Amino acid sequence: MPVKDCKTKPPAGSRKRQHVTIRFRLRGDRKTCRFLNELAGVNRYLWNAALAKAKEDYTETGQSQTSQFDFYKWYKVHKDTAAPWLREYPVNATRTGLKDLADAYKQFFKKKRGLPRFKKRGKAKKSFTVDVSGGKMFSTNGYVRLKRGMHMKMLRFYRVNRYTNPVPKTARIFEENGNWYMTVVYEVDATLQDADGIGIGVDRNCGQIADSAGRIFYLTDTSGIEKRIQKLQRRLAKKQKGSHSWRRRKKTIARHERKIKNIRRNDLRHVALSLTEISTLVILEDLKTKGMTASAKGTVENPGRNVKQKAGLNRSILGTGWAILEQFLRERGVVIKVPPHYTSQTCSKCSYVNAKNRQKQSEFLCLACGYQANADTNASVNIRASGMASWHELCRTGRGAYVRPVIAERKPATGQRVMKHQKEHGAHGHSCI
Ligand SMILES: [Zn+2]
After folding, report:
1. 196-399: CATH number
2. Which site among 104, 224, 372, 397 is 20 to 30 Å from 79 CA-CA?
């Protein structure tokens, strides 16, 4: 049932610009990776030195200059006097870090965060900002230029080509789980689109996701990898901290954790795609009130399975997993969140509420009308009904639309492989290659 009187401002389909973030893995030889390590260290040094200077000024004069301009001025003097070795490093990837410090101070003065702190070697994340505005450091053909003769390949760079008129705004290089990555924020063409107003309710559970269309998506079972991680962690505890074997073991653990994370992200992307295929208006339970632990423990009337196993690592992954699903859904549609109360105890046919309606984990049986269904499906139908009640209000206030980047259409596949395929199977308008 599409809603007719949906008025949004500005009108749907209007052109906009939107920021999208793309994460590239960086590939380079050992020498280049070492240079990235050095750059991260230089950034850490500059942060600490500038912070020390600002703190010193404050204790001496009662005030300190903490704007980006002030720090850049300090950098110029510092480079010529105290640290001439800084000249060996590209300005685009070192001085820019001082903007981060200026921003941190800004947040502090707004009382949104505490005073900026020193970054400890080995503890602080290896991460630094790269200035891409000059066009010197950042090439458009998929390479980052770190310095003369030193480049890194940005893997799967072609993903940028999906978008129209991408302009790189900011970039950041960092190390995670033993790999180097670069996230680039692009400004791309986008349109404002109305949600279709059909509505689909989603019930999120431990390890599975049910929707009001009666489908249940099972997330990949990662318990095998989790067990392996636990085993590795026990072994790690016996190693001497900082030793060679300790470091190697830690790397292995990071690799396993990365694996789980990738599996989970991949699952959730597919779920988000399937959900928004039915409707671009997705209604979720607001899980904030339940807290993260709910995903493992369940509720009193609905205890979760394998509580013990799920308690540790899985909890954190699931906890962030739901946030990721929401993020994926917001990229493809409008998300409404509804309070989770009684959604699992209410009959979706006659709206009779009773905790005894759900006597088993997976089955729902209404004690008033005898309606029988999968418990999660029933809950998701309730969630949808609850969300649709606020849909008109959402449209009235102009929040019934979402911004979506303009995705370039794929060129049809051509070439010898396709020709050969068509010879064998006939030209049927698509390519199965
Ligand atoms: Zn009923």
Report:
1. 3.30.420
2. 104
